[in-house]
Each structure stands twice: as C-alpha cells, then as structure tokens.
C-alpha cells in the first residue's frame, strides 16, 4: 500500500475532533551503480524498477535497449530500500560524470544536484502531430480516474503518457512529481513503447527538470495541472516542446509551441 493511516486533531468551527487520515508514504530509495552509491531519492514505494530505469534514462546514465539488471532489497537497520544496478562500464553515459549530492528530495529534483548541467539544445524535438485542446482536457479526466493513492490520501502526484491516438500508455503515482515522471518513462522503456508516447500529463507544477525529462524521452507535448516556472518555459521554447499549464476546469494556457494544438475555434 502507498498510504498509511495517521491520527490527528482537526480544528473546525471552534471544535476539536479526532480524525483518521490516509497519508502518502515517503521513504528513501538508495540507488547504487555497480555497488557504488549514486544517489538517494525520497519516493513513494512501488514501481521502484520503473523509477530507477526512468531516472537513469533521463539523467543520460543508461539509455541502452538491453535489459537493466536491478536488485532491490530492504535494509531494515537503516530503514531504507536499496536498489543496486549492474551496468557494463562501457555502456554508462556521460550523465554519470555529473556529480549529485547524496540526497535528492522528492519535491525538487534539481535541489539535490551540485550544479545545473547543460542541456544540448541543438537537437530540438521535431514532431508535427497535433491534438485538439478539447481532447486534451479528457486526458486529465482519464489520468484522475487512475490515481487510487491520490483518491485515498490527496497527497500524491501522477504522470501519464498517451499515444498519438490518445491511448493511455502508462500512468504512475508518487509523492514526488519528478519521480512519477521517471516511473512512467521507465515503464514505457520496459514496455518498449517509449517512441509511442506523444503526450505527457502531470498533476502538479512544471519545473525545468520535468522539461528535461520530457525532452530526454522525446515526448513533444507536456501538459500540467498547475503553473510552470520561468526556466521551464524558456527551455520548452528552446527544446521544441509544446508546454501547457493550468489545465483544469476546461481551461489551459500554452506557453511554448502552440502549433501542435487545434483550438476550439479552428
């Protein structure tokens, strides 16, 4: 289960009542590459193999099509989950050289890094598929239907990938927005359907790093429920990503590359 029940005191209308609330689990996952610790990320347990695969892909550490051998175990003494990945040294990408602080928090993937690495903007995403804005709203309805952890706790994020025909390819939940995206990318790689993903929806806000993950996965359309950051918009423009935000209540705002959108008035 991705939730635990906690008791609390609720103050409402001058009264104090005891409540039982479901809260999303947040636990540490230590990722090691060839038995050498690479990073620790705070995540919601479940689909850990997808998270590892997606994170290593988006960080340009392992993008080979060969099976990634990952062993996951519980270290009860340290109260931490350990994932050890075996990778041929010759297949490890340049991203491994970008040092990362040992703790990467779930809410902000960039905070755990020692520096903001450069992104190669010379290979923009070129994709001429279009989507109706009205159809886009329905994708968020579909995503919401597949968020059991959120419905029970109200505290988890979700990411979902859709095909050109708007078929749901993958959806994952996590307490961290970045983790949810990594889990989706990892699941798509495992399914060998990453190339089929044309739209990525995210339940929270959009940061620079989620743009970077979408770019690494070559997903041309990214849509979010909440706001984007200025850096996210700047990178979306540079990288050829159609970026939409505030996608709720049948409204949406496009900040980059609207040419892939079919508006209701078109």
Give the tags.
six-stranded mixed beta sheet, single chain, 266 residues, Cytidine Deaminase, domain 2, five-stranded mixed beta sheet, alpha/beta, 2 domains
Describe this structure in words.
With 266 residues, the protein is of the alpha/beta class. The chain has helices spanning 48-58, 133-145, 148-153, 177-191, 208-216, 230-239; strands at residues 3-12, 15-24, 27-33, 36-43, 69-75, 80-86, 103-104, 131-132, 157-162, 168-174, 199-202, 221-224, 242-248, 251-256, 261-262. It has two domains: 27-112, no CATH class; 131-262, Cytidine Deaminase, domain 2. The chain has a six-stranded mixed β-sheet with strand order 10-9-11-12-13-14, sandwiched between helices. Strands 5-6-3-4-7 form a five-stranded mixed β-sheet, covered by helices on one side. A hairpin with a 2-residue loop joins β1 (3-12) and β2 (15-24). It starts with a strand and ends with a strand. Mean pLDDT is 86; it is low at 101-118.
The appropriate CATH architecture of the largest domain is: 3-Layer(aba) Sandwich
Low-confidence stretches: 101-118
Q: According to CATH, what is the class of the largest domain?
A: Alpha Beta
Structural domains: how many:
2
Radius of gyration: 19 Å
Strand arrangement across the biggest beta sheet: 10-9-11-12-13-14
Give the CATH H-level superfamily of the largest domain: Cytidine Deaminase, domain 2
What is the distance, rounded to the nearest whole angstrom, between the alpha carbons of the first and last residues? 45 Å
CATH names the topology of the largest domain as Cytidine Deaminase, domain 2
Annotation, overall tally of beta strands: 15
């Amino acid at each position: 289960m991705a939730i635990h029940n906690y008791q609390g005191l609720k103050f409402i209308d001058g009264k104090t009542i005891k409540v039982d609330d479901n809260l999303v689990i947040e636990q540490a996952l230590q990722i090691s590459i060839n038995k050498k610790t690479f990073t620790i990320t705070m995540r919601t347990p479940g689909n850990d193999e997808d998270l590892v695969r997606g994170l290593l892909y988006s960080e340009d550490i392992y993008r080979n099509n060969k099976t990634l051998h990952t062993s996951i175990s519980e270290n009860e003494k340290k109260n931490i989950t350990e994932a050890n990945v075996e990778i041929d040294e010759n297949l490890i990408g340049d991203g491994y050289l970008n040092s990362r602080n040992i703790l990467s928090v779930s809410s902000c993937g960039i905070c755990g890094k020692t520096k903001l690495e450069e992104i190669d903007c010379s290979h923009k995403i070129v994709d001429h598929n279009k989507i109706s804005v009205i159809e886009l709203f329905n994708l968020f309805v579909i995503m919401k239907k597949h968020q059991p952890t959120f419905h029970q706790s109200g505290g988890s994020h979700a990411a979902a990938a859709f095909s050109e025909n708007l078929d749901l390819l993958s959806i994952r939940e996590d307490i961290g927005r970045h983790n949810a995206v990594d889990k989706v990318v990892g699941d798509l790689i495992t399914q060998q359907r990453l190339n089929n993903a044309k739209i990525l929806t995210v339940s929270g806000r959009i940061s620079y790093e989620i743009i970077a993950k979408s770019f690494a996965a070559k997903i041309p359309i990214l849509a979010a429920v909440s706001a984007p950051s200025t850096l996210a918009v700047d990178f979306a423009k540079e990288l050829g990503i159609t970026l939409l935000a505030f996608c709720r209540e049948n409204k949406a705002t496009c900040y980059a590359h609207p040419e892939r959108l079919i508006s209701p008035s078109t």
